[in-house]
Amino acid sequence: MASIRPLNGFRDFYPPAFAERAHIFATWRRVAARYGFVEYDGPPLEPLELYTKKSGAEIVDQLYNFVDKGGRDVSLRPEMTPTVARMVAAQANALRKPVRWFSIPQLFRYERAQRGRLREHFQLNADIFGDGGESADAELLAMVIDILREFGLTSDDVRVRLSDRRLLNAVLHAMGHPAERIPAIYAVLDKLDRQPRELSVEKLATAGCTTAQVDALLALIEQTNATGVAALAPLLQDAEGATRLAAMQETLAMTQALIGTAVAPWVRLDLTIVRGLAYYTGIVFEVFDAKGELRAVCGGGRYDELLNALGGVDMPAAGFGWGDVVLGELLRDRGLLPSAPPSPEVWVAAGDDVDVATVRATVGALRRAGRRVEYALRPQQLGKQLKAAVSAGAAHALILRGDAPEGGTVRDLTSGAETSVVLATWLANQR
Ligand code: HAM
Q1: Same domain, 46 and 67
Q2: 204: Cβ below 6 Å to ligand 1?
C-alpha cells in the first residue's frame, strides 16, 4: 500500500525542523518575558460565529470549518485575536491593566499552499489590552524590533512598514475624499504594490476619484515613503489631522527611546499598509524582508472596538501576529537557524573489560547531574562506540577503563585530545 502522506499544507516536523521551531519559540518567549508579557492559550476549535462576526471576508473565505457530530457550526482557529478578545472581555474587571498577554497557537487557514503560506502555521500573538495610547503602540513596535534583533536580523534585513487608519482617514479627508469612498481607496492601497499601476488608477477612478485626486494621492504615498511623516505636515492643517500627525511622531519617538537606537532605519511610514482584517481602528503595521522577496513576516495593529463587539466590554487593544513560516525562510536564508537538534554533551563508552552495567551507573550519575548523555545500549567494540559518539555529534566521550576503575579518559571528539581523569572528581565537577 502506498504510504499515506500528510495533508497538503501541513508539516511533519522531523527533529532538524523541530529544532528550528524550538529556536523560534524560545526566542519569542525570551523577548516576550522581557516586556512583561505572560503566556495564555485558548481552544483550537471555536464556534464558527466567532470569526464570521468581525474578522472580515479574507479570513472567512479561508476558514477550516465544518459541522460537528452535534450539529454545531465550528471552525479551527484561523487567528488568535477573536479568542483572546473574548477571554479578556470575560474577565475585564478582574484583570490588572494594562493586560500584556502572549501565546503561540497553531492556526489553520484553508489557503492555497504556496511559498510562505501553508494551511497550518504557528503564530506568536502579543497583545496589550486596556491602554489606548501611543505608549502601548510603541511598546509593541519596540518589541517587534527587539524580536528581530534577538534573531540576529538587522535593519538591513527587515523593515517595519507602519501606518495608522486614523491618520490615513485624515489624509483622505484633507484631500477631499468623502467618507463613503474610503473603503474602496483602502482596497486599492492594500494591493498597490501587487497590481499594475494602471489597474490601481482605474479602480480609484471607478471609486469616484478625479484624475487630479488620483495623481495627488499616488504622489503623496511616494513622498511619504521617501521622506517620512514630515511629508504629511502641509496637508494636515485641521485639528484632527494635526492630532493624528503628532500622535504618529510621538509613537516613533517613544519607540526610538525604547530600542535605544534610531528608529528610522527600522520603521518606515507607509500609507499602503491597511491590513486585510476588518477590526483594526488605529495603527497598522507589517514587517517585510528588506529585499521584498517574501510575504509579510508579521502583522498587527490597534483594534479598539473588537472587545465590545465580541464581549460587550469597552477596552482598547493592540497587538500583532508573527508567523513561523516566512520567518523560518528568512532566518534560514541568512544562516540564522540552528541546523541540528541538540546533541549529547557526553558519550560514555566502555573500554576493555567494562560491562554495560558499569556504563549505565556512570550514565545515570551524569544525567542526575543534568548532563545530556548517551551510550551504546548493547556491548560494542570501543572503536564502534566512538564512531557512534561522533555521528551523534557528542562533544566528549568518557571512556571507562576496566584495568583502572577509579579513573577514565575524557576524549575531545573534535580534536581527538585525551585527558586522564579521576572519575569521582570529574563527575563531581559536572554539576
Ligand atoms: P495576519 O496578518 O493574518 O494577522 O497574520 C499574521 C502573520 O501570520 C502573517 O504576517 C504571516 O507571517 C503569518 N501567516 C498568516 N497566514 C499564514 C499562512 N497561511 N501560512 C503561514 N503563515 C501565515 C493576524 O492573524 C492578526 N490576528 C494578528 C494580530 C494579533 N493583530 C492583533 N493582534
Answers
A1: yes
A2: no
Q: Is 39 helix (H, G, I), strand (E, B) or coil?
A: strand
Give 39's strand partners: 102
Of 333, 354, 387, which one is at a domain's C-terminal end? 333
In this structure, is residue 216 part of a structural domain? no
Centre of ligand 1 from the C-alpha of residue 123, in Å: 7
Same domain? For 327 and 368 the reply is no
Number of domains in the chain: 2
Distance of CA 11 to the CA centre of its chain: 17
Asked whether 296 lines ligand 1 (CB < 6 A), one says yes
Q: Which atom of ligand 1 sits closest to the CA of residue 125?
A: 30
Residue 199 lies in a domain: no
Cα 324 to averaged position of ligand 1 atoms, centre (Å): 10
Do 163 and 284 contact (CB within 8 A), yes or no?
Answer: yes
Positive/negative CA dihedral, 22, 302, 165, 251: negative
Q: Give the CA distances from residue 225 to residues 182, 364, 390, in Å, rounded to whole numbers and listed in that order.
A: 20, 61, 53
10-residue stretch averages of pLDDT, the chain, 431 residues long? 90 96 98 98 96 78 95 96 96 97 98 94 98 98 98 98 96 94 92 91 94 94 90 90 95 98 97 88 96 94 95 97 98 91 94 93 95 96 97 96 89 95 88 70
Q: Whole-model pTM?
A: 0.94
11 CB less than 6 Å from ligand 1? no
Which residue has its alpha carbon closest to ligand 1 atom 20? 117
Domain annotation covers residue 405: yes
Is residue 171, in this structure, part of any structural domain at all?
A: yes
> 118 CB less than 6 Å from ligand 1?
yes
Look up the domain containing 409 and give its range.
Answer: 346-428
